[in-house]
Amino acid sequence: MNRCETETNMSLIVPVIDVHNDNFKELWPALIIAIKTSSFIALDTELSGLGNRKSLLAESIEDRFKAICHAARSRSILSLGIACYKKLDQKAADTYLVQVYNLTLLCSEEYIIEPQSVQFLVQHGFDFNKQYSHGIPYCKGNNKGGADDRGVHIRALFTELLRARKPLVLHNGLIDIAFLYQSFYAHLPERLATFTADLSEMFPDGIYDTKYVTEFELRLTASYLEYAYKKCKLDNSRCVTSGSTGPHVHIEFCQYSGHMSTYVDYRECPAVASSEGQPDICQRFSAFGWCPNGTKCPLSHDTDLIILQDEKCKEDKRKKRKRQREKKRGGGEITEGSSIFDGAPVNKKQNMEVDTEEPAGDQQAAAAEPLPDATTQMDSDGNSKRAEGQDTNTANEGNGTCEDKTDLPNSETTAAAGESGAGVDDKPDDARRKKKADTGTHRAGFDAYMTGYIFAYSWALTRKEAGTAGEETEPSWHPDCVNKIYLSGKATPLNVVKSTFSKSSKAHVQKMEMVWGEKM
Known about the structure:
Layout: E1 12-19, H1 24-36, E2 40-47, H2 61-74, E3 77-87, E4 95-107, H3 115-123, H4 128-134, E5 136-138, H5 154-164, E6 168-170, H6 174-184, H7 192-202, E7 207-209, H8 210-218, H9 225-242, E8 250-253, E9 264-269, H10 283-288, H11 303-329, H12 430-436, H13 443-466, E10 484-485, E11 494-495, H14 506-516
Parallel strand pairs: 1-4, 2-6, 4-5, 4-8, 6-7
Antiparallel strand pairs: 1-9, 2-3, 3-4, 10-11
Helix pairs in contact: 2-6, 8-13, 9-11, 9-13
């Protein structure tokens, strides 16, 4: 019998299917079905490096694109995470069956791998021995021998993803999508306008960036991936347990049995604990998701504690403003130096949302975070690449979510494998699952899962606030966020559109004829 547990603020274990060269052909049918039957697909990557970090945050967006192109042409994708979210219409609103895959890749051409990227990835469990011995081979740029739409290989998988015409979800995704284009599609064009024109046709159902969603729609205190995911999960769990009306995200996973279960690793995301009696929090990590001291920092990098501290600061701020308003109505004067940001970490103040209880004149959007000095540290979005937190650090500081916390209670949301062909185990081996609970590897796969969760939660919340939840005919996914890719340090996103003044690239036109079987 299949088991499904409603998500609450308990530990959640996410099954991640480990895909490598030895089992790629065997898992191919399940992968293709998961992609074709999904409602949207979230992707994430691990990269061998990024090159010059300052260039990736150049003032000119065109200059940024040139730097990203150079990185994508000279570096490679080491692993690819794919999370397929399928909305289950026959169940409660916003219930998704999620299948998560982590593909270990090996570029067959020469590429640069940066020492700091190696150090970061090794610290977080990436197995380079496994990559070089079992990585799925691929060649970058334009097709080199064999058709992209035939056979069992990564480029054919990317072609199937395009043919599926599903919404693509990324987090801080400009670098991700450029690497995907260069690695599995064609040589990147020289101009940004040509690139965005190509993307608009490659993904007709839209590209969504959850970094943009968290910054401009949810307006979270911080927006690096781990923080955004845990905050969304915590708020969703509170809504479920409180019994409040409106849609809540419910997640179900396949239960894998038999030989299939040997390919599955489990990532645990424990429940948020109390902040009482906990060590001091590193304010740098709290704001940006990375710290120049890394693991040597004596202060806490626990994202759960950071979220609880932010919530406490926000509540204290509301109470203080309420007292000030009452005092003002009573004829008193507001004390000098009072601020709506009192109690907040200094380096977060410019990224905090303004309380909706404030009068209209005070409801101003928070300014973008200033760009600190360049650094070679990495951020926490898990991909050796991000220009995260509007910081000059575009490499991947990354701490895998819920690392070294596999000793907490074991709880899992499960469901039938459905069309994927995965087996269903009536009595899953809890001991085996606990033993295999993995917090160091499959980061690209788990990061893709987190990215998809943020998207699903934010969409449910948006519909609830708009009063359209539960309608039989729902509007398209996040219409206010479609084709808007987050740009670090910029007040506006990159719009993925085909301008009347730009043409698609020749390589793309040829690819589209192959993908769709018709001339563009």
